[in-house]
Design goal:
6-stranded antiparallel beta sheet, about 350 residues, alpha/beta, about 35% helix, single chain
């Protein structure tokens, strides 16, 4: 029987870093882990970055797990056939909710003979949580985006507050413990602090007794606030230039332009791969500095590299296309960049789950 762990949480919370950290820890203990990433589009930075941490890797694209449940099962089957794994870590799209009814409960009730389903984990970024709380206080109303965010918190069996080194983490843990029924804990995916407590929580029985009263019109409206963009580029990097330098320049320009426009950044992730080396940087707040996740050594000779850019920003798709084009031009003054895919930014369609099993129906 395969262990199945579903992880949700808003864009930029650190889900991929968390799953990679869990996979490495479990593999050290003798487990064989596969990570399944998920997105509305193709060319995922997360798949490329998480792959080395696990025995197997797969991805479900074109929609969230709830709308691609059958695809999720097919990808799991394909990964298991290719690799001897015993644990599946599944990372849902950052704008997805209602996973108890559309993924966890169907896994248990329809495929309980194949999967031992762990508690549903929602990863929480303390800074994002504070931003949402401030926005509600300022407007005295809950936006559709904040509504979606609250639903992710409400349905969790485990509320895992990531980035425990941030000063806001203690206050967030205390507030979540007061207002939500799930297990609340703090940890750092980057340093490993508190990771053992998170692993222990995954071994407990999940509740799955939360029936969200989801307004799917508001859910769809929240997703539609974001423009989604996945682009890939072929770079020609001169000797002495680090791939992380190109990504850093790109993200700084995107950060400046999104801040100037007053746009909310869900996340912007960039990976640059040359030979077997990879750099990865991310941005989760307009106006902030990019966060370095992985840095490859500077190139000794002129080389070709492949860059992936995944952006989720609250603006119109055409506006995001324009910002990216300008940022690539700035970043590429020292490195020629040619687009590989020219798919325009888009907004997700209406979420239509394959299954939606409520507690009363179970």
């Amino acid at each position: 029987m395969l262990a199945f762990v579903a992880v949700t949480g808003f864009l930029g919370a650190g889900k991929t870093t968390t799953l990679a950290a869990i996979a490495r820890r479990l593999e050290q203990q003798g487990r064989r882990v596969a990570i399944i990433t998920n997105d509305q589009g193709d060319d995922l930075v997360d798949t490329r970055v998480a792959g080395p941490a696990a025995t197997g890797i797969g991805e479900v694209t074109g929609g969230c797990f709830c709308c691609r449940f059958d695809d999720l099962l097919e990808v799991i089957q394909s990964v298991v056939a290719a690799s001897p794994v015993d644990t599946i870590l599944a990372e849902a799209v950052g704008s997805c909710t209602d996973l108890q009814a559309t993924v966890v409960r169907p896994m248990k009730q329809l495929y309980g003979d194949r999967f031992a389903v762990a508690p549903l984990v929602t990863v929480v970024d303390p800074q994002r949580y504070a931003e949402v709380r401030r926005s509600i206080a300022l407007t005295d109303a809950e936006s559709d985006m904040a509504y979606l965010y609250r639903q992710q918190l409400t349905e969790a069996d485990v509320l895992a507050v990531n980035k425990s080194d941030l000063t806001a983490a203690d206050d967030v843990v205390a507030e979540l413990s007061e207002h939500y029924d799930g297990v609340v804990l703090r940890y750092s995916a980057r340093t490993g602090d508190g990771l053992d407590e998170l692993l222990a929580a995954l071994e407990r029985p999940g509740n799955s007794a939360v029936d969200l009263d989801v307004d799917y019109d508001r859910y769809a409206a929240a997703e539609a606030e974001l423009a989604w963009l996945n682009h890939s580029y072929q770079l020609r990097l001169p000797a002495g230039v680090g791939s992380a330098d190109w990504a850093d320049t790109l993200l700084r320009e995107i950060s400046r332009r999104t801040a100037d426009n007053g746009w909310t950044v869900g996340h912007v992730k960039v990976s640059v791969s040359s030979d077997d080396a990879i750099s990865k940087l991310s941005l989760t707040t307009a106006g902030a500095e990019p966060q370095l996740d992985l840095r490859a050594a500077p190139l000794k000779t002129e080389s070709t590299a492949i860059a992936l850019v995944n952006a989720r920003v609250a603006c119109e798709p055409a506006e995001l296309d324009e910002v990216l084009e300008a940022a690539v031009a700035v970043a590429s003054r020292a490195a020629a960049a040619a687009p590989i895919n020219a798919v325009a930014a888009f907004k997700p369609g209406y979420p239509r789950p394959v299954h939606r099993i409520r507690v009363a129906a179970g």
